[in-house]
Structures are given as C-alpha cells and as structure tokens.
Protein 1
Amino acid sequence: MHALQYELTLPAGYDMGIIRDRVARRGHLLDDWDGLGLKAYLVRERGLRGSPVNQYAPFYLWNTVDGMNAFLWGGGFQGVTDDFGRPSARQWTGLAYQEGNGSHARFAVRRRQPVPDDGPLADAVQEAVDEAGRSAARDGALLAAAAVDTSRWELVHFSLWERWEQDAPKADGDVFEVLHLSAPGRDRLPRGRQW
C-alpha cells in the first residue's frame, strides 16, 4: 500500500463551491482506476472544524505503484496541474490498514507527525500500526491507515468517519469534509500490518 496526498491551499475568500462543483463533475473519473485502493476527495474551509485555511487536499491509498504512476504520469494528475499548477505530491509507504464499522465517509482526519528520534524505529512504527487499529475500532470509523515517509521520517495517520462530533473528536488531526470517495480497490487493500 502507498499513500499519496497533495494540498491546494486557496485564498481566504475563495468560493469553495468551485471545488465542490469540480468534484461533482469529475469525481467519478477514478471510480474504476486500476491499482487505486481509494481516493477521498477532501476539502476544509476556513473557520469550520478548526481549519485556518480553505483547502482542496485529495488523499489516496494505492494498491499498486503501477496504478499510482499511471495516475501521475498517464493523465489523471494532469487535470489538477492544468487547473491549479503543479502541487507537491507527498508519498508515504504503507504501515497498516484497517476497516471499521462505518458505512459512509463524510469526514476524514489526517495527522502528520515526526517519527521520534529516541528509541527503536520498530517501536515507533508499531505504535502507528496500533493507533490505526484503535481508530478503526471506534464507533463510526469507516477505515484507518498509517504510513511513513522515510526521507522526512514522518508518519501520517489517516481515517474516514461517518460523522464528526465537535464535542468528542474521535481522532486527532486536521478535519476534512469528504466530497466523494472513489474506492475501486478498497476491498484489495492489505489488512493489518504491512510487513
């Protein structure tokens, strides 16, 4: 499993309806993309759910590098670069993936954190694996994943949720609204620890 995300941070007064319309028109284009586990079309709006920015930030979990490369180099990503310029596309190697009991993705939570400098690496990544399992087991979680970027020694935690309760958050991190979920290979994402 491989994770990929790019973020398009938009002006404070940007009409986020433009992004919503874009996803409504184009979101289905990856509903059958070969090699894609899932793509969550994510937005966050300044002032909502603690967001300091307007942002469009799709998050991908790939089953195959070939599928990811076909998207990046074979035309899928070109639509983003044509409309917004070429954003940095962050990549992480999968550590864990777990399914939850939720049935519909309405919100996502993403948290990036450095891999601790002290202690064995195995302990740090095992904690990320365990956290994915705990998140997926919570009521309303659709799924949870953890991945690592070894060039930056950064962990990413990602989860999808049926609902977001302001008073009792289920996970720590940046909260996004899910506009669409393309999941042609979600059932083929490897479960559990990835090594």
Protein 2
Amino acid sequence: MARLREFDTDEVMEAVINAFWERDYEATSLADLMAVTGLQKDSIYKAFGDKRSLFLKVLQAYLVCTRSLD
C-alpha cells in the first residue's frame, strides 16, 4: 500500500518557487531544494520528478496564479 504524503504540496511549491526566484534555475541545486523543502531526494523525485520537471511545475503554478490576479 502506498504511503500518504506527509507534506503540504502548496508549501513545498512555494518554497521551490522562492528558491528558483532567489538563485535562478541553474544555480539552484537539488541540495538547495532539499534544504528549502525539508524533503529528502527520493521524496522530491517521487512527488515531482527531476529538477527540470519540478521547475516546470512551479512555473506553471506561478503562471496560473498570476493570470488569476488579472
């Protein structure tokens, strides 16, 4: 049986957006993402995929959020 996620996806996404915003994509390492989210590498990969996939997910969420403000 699969375990339930023990973290708030929205909080993780916000932390990741901030990390990419502060450092940019290239300068943000997986270790940085682990530090800001409190997640281990395997949890990040299972929930969001690799760094590029995670970046695309947070970018999409950011764009949706900014469009809703219009």
Protein 3
Amino acid sequence: MGKEWKAKAFKSGNSIALRMPKALGFQDGDEVRVVQHSDGSFSFWKESDAKKVFMSLYGSMSAGFMAEGRGDIEQDDRAWDLPTKDNEAA
C-alpha cells in the first residue's frame, strides 16, 4: 500500500467539507472526482487527471472477471416493423 494521510471532516454551511493535507498536491479551486465503492470506501482524483486514472484501469481486472458471463441479459423479441416516434409517417 502507498502512503497514508489523515483528513478531517468539518461542517461548512449545510455541507460536510473535507480538509485535505497539502502533501496531496491539491490546489485551491481544483475540481475533484469522488467515487464511493460498494464496500463503503472512496477513491478520489483531480478532474484534470480523469483520463490518466481511467487508462490506469486497463488490465486491472482480476483474471476471473466476468468468467461466468454477464448474467441474465435476455431481452424480449422486438417488432422492428412497428412505427416509432422517430419513423412515424407524417
């Protein structure tokens, strides 16, 4: 695991703010993306680094990821010849 820092949450108006350590390299006004995971943990990064973060996910899935397929994704048959809003006769 990498380095660890402590942050402190505090009330700011009707919101909860998080005071981040300067060592993390955030600047005043930086836009930050925060993602909550199903286990309750969080990941965050500068919005300007979003592409780099996304690209770093390549190859990070476990070998068994989706080994059993996508699960139940069957769909009902569609009547493709019926008119829709997009192709209705005027």
Protein 4
Amino acid sequence: MRKKTSGYIIQWLILSSLLICPTYVFAQKKKDKDKEKTEKVKLYQGTTIGVEIAGLGNYVLGSDILSSDVMLQANFLNRFLPIVEVGYGKVNTLSDATDIRYKTAAPFFKVGMDYNFFHNKPHLPGFLFGGLRYGFSSFVYDVDGPTMTDPNYGGQIQVPFSYHGVNTTAHWLEIVGGMKVKIYKGFCMGWSVKYKRRLSYTKHANTEPWYIPGYGENAGTAFTLSYHLMYNLPF
C-alpha cells in the first residue's frame, strides 16, 4: 500500500513539474522580454529648440500685432515633454470704431508639459500631443482717446483720456493640442491649437489693457493657432 501511495506521489510530482515548468519558463521569458523592452526606452530622448513663425508672418503681412516665441522642450521616455517658452509681443493700433490708440511691447513667459499620445510608436516620423501651459507677462501700456466731457457739470468740463506708462501684470492658463512632424534629418515642424483662460490681471480705476503680450486681446478666454519650426539638438 505504501509502494502504491509512493508511486502515486511520484507520478503526481512528475506531472506537476511537467505542467509548472513550461508555465514558469513562459512567464519568465515574458518577464524578461518586458524588462528588455522597458530597458530599450531611454529616459532622456533629446531636446528640441524652435521658433514660432505664424505671428511673425502676420506682422510682416501688415498686422498691427507682433507675437512670437522661442521654445525649448525636453523629451523623457518619448512620452513626457516639459517645455519652456520665452516670447515677445507688441501692438500699436488705432481703433476705427472708438478712435482709441493702444500701444504696448513686452516679453512673456510660459512653462508647461506636453504628453505624446504616440509614445509607443517611435517608428513614426512625428507624434500627436496634448498639454498645459502657465503664462505670465509684466508690461507697460499707453492708451489715448478722444477728450471726454463730464456730464456732471453740464458738459462744460472736458477730461482728456490719456494714460501712459500703466504698469500691469497678467496670468493665464492654456490647454494645448497639436502635432509635430520630422521634415529633414533633425528639422521638424509643428502646429498647435491653444485654448487660453485668463486667471488675473492688474486692474486700474479708469483703464484696462486691451492687449496682453503672449495672451492676445484681453478677454476671459481665447483661441490661438501657433506654427513652429524646430530642430532636434544633436545631443
């Protein structure tokens, strides 16, 4: 009876080993393969520098507004893309409807992060991304308009509408979506759509900014389109 029991135990052990070993080997191979795949994706994938040309083009073609920036973006795991943008915006315009002239010129700054939705397809010549930006600008503006008449004094007193050197700061957020494509060796081009939401700006008693460098016309929300020429730095 003991011999039969021992035989059954030995058979069970052999059968179990035959079932367990292939499963373990398969699992180990899969684990090694996943580990190898993970190790192939380097943490640092490079840095890209670029310049926004749509705003430059509009200004050259006769627009009263100039807005452009230089961007520097790193690539981690081909997935996470932190970015810094430093730009310059200016406007000198006269409104035909109100006869008010507005003038300002100042730098602006943005910092944020993009996410590459095609991170698992490195063979593609580009990628689709989405991200967020925080924007900030500190600027001085001038505004001049027609002389105003004070109704409290029977229209006898006229008040000049002219404010120069008005100091202002503005903060905003941007939701960004766009595409980047390689065109030749390390050169790339890309476009993006930005939904902007103003957070705050300095308010004054008798005037407010019409245009905010980096943001655009002073409204609660805004949409803008950007077009960049870029170069992947060779390190």
